[in-house]
Amino acid sequence: MPPISSLRSSRSAARPPLPAIRVPAARAIVDCGVYVDGHRLPGRFTHSAALAEVRERRAGFVWVGLHAPDVHQMNSVAEVFGLHELMVEDAVHAHQRPKLEVYDDVLFLVLRTVNYVEHDSISTAREIVETGEIMIFLGRDFVVTVRHGDHSGLAGVRAAMDADPSRLSRGPSAVLHAIADHVVDSYLAVTDLVEHDVDLLEEDVFSVRQIDVDSIYLLKREIVELRKSVTPLGTPLQRLSQEPSLGVPKEVRRYLRDVQDHHTIVAERVSEFDEILSTLVEAALAKVAVQQNTDMRKISAWVAIAAVPTMLAGIYGMNFEHMPELGWTLGYPAILTIIAASCIGLFVTFRRNNWL
Questions:
Q1: How far apart are CA 271 and CA 316, in angstroms?
Q2: pLDDT, tens digit, 9 for 90 and up, residues 62-82
Q3: Tens-digit pLDDT profile for residues 176-229
Q4: How far is the C-alpha of 137 from the C-alpha of 149, rounded, in Å?
Q5: b vs e for 325-346, b when ≥16 Cβ sit within 10 Å of the residue's Cβ?
Q6: How far is CA 110 from CA 40, 62, 145, 163, 234, in A?
């Protein structure tokens, strides 16, 4: 008879794996609204019922917002709105560069969001800028937003749009503009705060205080992350504001050009921060090298001063039999006087030459 342990292992191996628990798409949907003539219809809708309502009316559009959906949840939404599988994959796995793609008649825009992490001092901070993502799927009668990150909420954008029916009456592209404008405005706010950190580091580098090079490298790393989030968005915004073939109304394109102008300002500021920090790194390293040279001069000066008594003591410590000074009554005081005079003379010389 086989042992009990082997029987248990064979039974567990034969047992089929438990099916993965599928969370319904409604758990990932933050809000779903139906907008007709710029006004939100009362009541609550599922994403499928909302799209059916719009297409039955042949007017208005649906705005569905999701937060960090999994594969099953995103597939459920994609099936209703006819989203391409490649867009679904990007929306689930995130970590995308800002980009604009067109799949049939659906625009897919990826934006990187940034948030400034408050800290008491750069030297104690571990992170200064945190990033997230917002994906926008724009169709003829719908806009689906997928966001990743806890700081990238769009509740304020939706509330502002709900209070302005004239903007919503322009269709789903007005929502795209509002989100892009919100993201770029957050870039401006973050760069204002980062600029203060850069100014503080600049003061530290060119002051007499000790330099913390690690703080410069930390901020440099965060600026690189900020640049990767901000700069690539320029090309998608340019296309949206200048290419009528993308289906964005002319009036909305005008507003997108304003967003593009603000983005250009942010991109230039981030590039400026990067150049300043590169200069600060070079200045800090040069200052460290100068400080090391100063320390080496001080060490060398004290070694030279210490070498005089060491040399004289070494000569008269050889204990040869025929050394005339050993029998001289004033020999010991004379040697001490020579040692003291030599050390004082060297000290004064080095001090005059700023070695000490």
A1: 68
A2: 999 999 999 999 999 999 999
A3: 999 999 999 999 999 999 999 999 888 888 775 667 788 888 999 999 999 999
A4: 18
A5: eeeeeeeeeebeeebeebbeeb
A6: 26, 19, 10, 26, 12
**E strands within the chain?**
29-36, 39-40, 61-67, 99-103, 106-116, 129-138, 142-148
| 157 pLDDT higher than 80 | yes
Cα atoms in the 13 Å half-sphere on the side-chain side of 76: 18
In 3D space, the residue among 114, 108, 171, 182 whose CA is nearest the CA of residue 145 turns out to be 108
What tokens were used for 175?
A: 């929502």
The CA distance from 246 to 260, in Å, is 16
pTM for the full predicted model: 0.79
Give the integer Cα–Cα distance in Å for 45 and 147: 20
Query: Over the stretch 267-282, which tens digit does the pLDDT of each residue have?
Result: 999 999 999 998 888 8
- Name the residue type at position 141: D
Amino acid identity of 233? L
Q: Which two tokens mark 70?
A: 């999994």
Report the C-alpha gap between 92 and 70 in whole angstroms. Answer: 6
Pairing of strands 39-40, 129-138: unpaired
Q: What is the DSSP string of 165-207?
A: HHHHTT-HHHHHHHHHHHHHHHHHHHHHHHHHHHHHHHHHHTS
pLDDT of residue 4: 46
